[in-house]
Amino acid sequence: MRNDSIERSFNDSILTIVDYLLQRSDKAKIQKDMETRRNIRNDFKKIYSRNSSISNDEREEGEYELYYAFIKKHQPELFVKGKPVEIFPVDRDKSSFQVLNSKGFFYGVFKQEGKDAHRVTRAFDSKEEVLLNTFGTSRFEKFRGYSFFHLDDGKTYSLKDNKQFRFNLTQSFKPQLFYENIEHARSIVVKEELKNEVAIKEKSLNRTFMEYQIPLDLIGKTITINNISKDELGVRISIEENDIKKDIMLPDLSEVWMERISKHPRMKAAFDELVMDSRSIGEGFLAFYGMEINKEFQKRQFDFEVISNEEGSYIGKLYGDGCVKKLSSYFLEGEAKEHLEKLNTYIQENSKRERQMAKEDIGIEFMEMSEND
Predict the structure, then answer these.
(1) What domain of life does the UniProt record list for this protein's source (predicted)?
(2) Which of 96, 151, 154, 245 is the most buried (most CB within 10 A)?
């Protein structure tokens, strides 16, 4: 995780390189040439290839920032306006691929939060042509804020995992990351959502601590570390919490912690952070975490939801194997959402009536028992 100073440094570097590359394009005096745009992308890759602290996602986003700055200044014609024929969410509400109809022509544009939409395709005569020529297929599914495209071999890919389409005018788009099928893709989306549920994480943490015989009552506490030693059995740590002293054994601990504790006697630390910096315990937690997520995915009863594809939008219900049961006919996307809202309202009102009737039945039964007494 980066600290604030590194983040600022990264952002400053991006701005500096933007200025450099824009100046380069001015000197070249061929701003609209495709080869120049390729050179800008290559310059970015060369500049950052030696910086191992930047992840691939960060590098790709930085590359897009440069590309956006370039076309914003030198190719304003790429920023077209028109009526969206269909919107394909890339990363929920943060970004989307949109098919626009402008003066009888259809364009594919990319829209990112805080930025203007810009073309990523040439003009076509229909929405289907835009999709087919850009993504290699016009068969798709929109599920929980993400868009997936189906290939003839049965595999599926998401726009979120393959954002290179944003540079389609510079280099033809070819997806790199795939799912085995749409059921697998849906499963991954839901499991990522489950990772945000605190109860699942806490349960996994408890199972991990029990496995390694670590006191559960110290979870979430700040402790004082009095002493640390290492032998063939592992790492022994003498700690103190609310004037209560304890010794715990860890199978291993990172050298960073070992040095920090030896240099700072009676240092305070978050107990969870200390323990989870043991490689063995960290790996154990991830294993339990994955098992708990899979278990929850298999047993959970999911609500009805709207799912869209090339045929239209329908109300469906997800099951633990990633399959969806279609429960309605096809509607326009907005209509499907309205029908889902009505269905949920009906279910809530019906459940409320059933609870009320159950209470009344219990009351009548109690009154009858009282009269018999």
Answers:
(1) Bacteria
(2) 96
CA dist 228 → 46, 215, 218, 253, 261 (Å): 45, 17, 18, 10, 7
Task: Give residue 371's pLDDT.
Answer: 53
Q: Which two tokens stand for residue 259?
A: 């040095």
DSSP 56-97: HHHHHHHHHHHHHHHHHHH-GGG----EEEEEEESSTTSEEE
Structure-derived torsion over alpha carbons of residues 257, 263, 268, 270, reported in degrees to the nearest 10? -10
What is the C-alpha separation between 309 and 316, in angstroms, rounded?
12
**Hey, how many other C-beta atoms are within 10 angstroms of the C-beta on 159?**
24
Which H helix or E strand runs over 240? Answer: strand 234-241
Instruction: Answer whether 194's CB lies under 8 Å from 218's CB.
Output: no
Nearest CA to 188 among 322, 57, 25? 322
Q: How far apart are CA 356 and CA 141, in angstroms?
A: 40
Q: Looking at residue 2, what is its pLDDT?
A: 45
DSSP state, residue 331:
B
Residues 6 or more apart in contact with residue 348 via CB below 8 angstroms = none
Q: Who has greater pLDDT, 153 or 30?
A: 153
DSSP 8-class letter at 150: E
HEC states along 267-299? EEEEHHHHHHCCHHHHHHHHHHHHHHHHHHHHH
Determine the Cα–Cα distance for residues 176 and 164; give it in Å rounded to an integer: 9
Number of H helices, E strands in the chain: 10, 14
